[in-house]
Amino acid sequence: MQNQFSDFRSDTVTTPSAEMRQVMSEADVGDDDYRDDPTVKRLEEKVADLFEKPAALFLPSGTQSNLIAILTHCQRGEEIITGKGYHIHAWEGGGASALGGVIVNPLTTNETGEINQDELSVSIKKGSGHEPSTKLLSLENTYCGMVQPVEKLDILTYIARKANISTHLDGARLANAVIKTGNSFASYGRLFDTVSFCLSKGLGAPVGSVLVGGPDFIERARRQRKQLGGGMRQSGILAAAGLYALEHNLNRLNTDHHNASVLAQKLSQNSVFHVRHNLTHTNIVYADIEPDKAESMHAHLASNHIKVNSAEAVIIEGKIWFRFRFVTHLNIDDEDINRLIDCSNIFDG
User: Fold this and answer.
1) Which residue intervals of 52-171 are DSSP H helices?
2) Cβ neighbours of residue 299 under 8 Å, at least 6 residues apart?
3) Which of 3, 30, 306, 322 meets the CB 3.0–4.6 Å disulfide criterion with 301?
4) Over the stretch 252-293, which tens digit does the pLDDT of each residue have?
5) What is the dihedral of CA 105, 108, 112, 115, to 10 degrees?
6) Domain ranges in the chain?
7) Which residues neighbour 218 within 8 Å (Cβ) at sequence distance 6 or greater?
8) pTM of whole model > 0.85?
9) CATH architecture of 16-247
10) Backbone angles phi, psi at 26, to 5 degrees
11) Domain 252-345 has CATH 3.90.1150.10
């Protein structure tokens, strides 16, 4: 337990290690808006090479990275197909529509986030005088910590390519999928025209995402970054953290996955929680609780220095439950897990 609080809210809450702070302080920097920052260039080249893409663009956040990808792929009044619970539809403030005038068509997914291929096929619009034209398929991996099988992604992107539709992957936690499956970053890069890759979740950097794609696309994306206020100056300080994360924190994601598995197993022994083991693929554990106990459990955990997000209502087989999400990351260790288990075991409702 490294902090006063055990923080299971998200892997975005990680703090830079002393070693990461050291490389940040020593970073060779320049004005990236003039393309003069050597550390940013090294990061962009490294991530582009990982995905076997020609070019990359360093951005302040995953939300901006996804938004810029959409605005570069689509014009106003055109349509994106994505999943109902995917971030670009549900968790990024409606930016595609509000700022880009792009229509989002969210398809239903199964419990683990997969889009039905037949529903995708019949949802693609050709852009007659009565309907928008579908221009982009945007998928997500991992989805809420659940790995999307590369074989399924291959089928969905093939359908899009046949229909002459561009493809984008929100790969905020793609590193978790890579470590879990053993698939390479390039194996995903080959399926998608563009990929957004986050450095500030499980990899532990304080800031930043990288958008990869073709050189012409990235040049247009760079202009979008400027219009949205994402052009940064001596951002090599931040890029250095991303480079350190890629060089030191990739393989340690196995530890987060192991800790999540241990947490799920121990939490399932608690009579109050119903752990959704089939949803624990990587570093996220879901546990359902009776509606009348959700608020008091949240308060109980908080009073014992355990930070979790409020439970959200879900319907399972016609019954309403409230679902807690527990995320393991580099600032969560065995003592944090035991604190959570001990605390939940003394909960009296």
Assistant:
1) 62-73, 87-90, 95-100, 117-123, 150-162
2) none
3) 306
4) 999 999 999 999 999 999 999 999 999 999 999 999 999 999
5) -70
6) 16-247, 252-345
7) 54, 55, 56, 57, 211, 212
8) yes
9) 3-Layer(aba) Sandwich (3.40)
10) -100, 5
11) yes
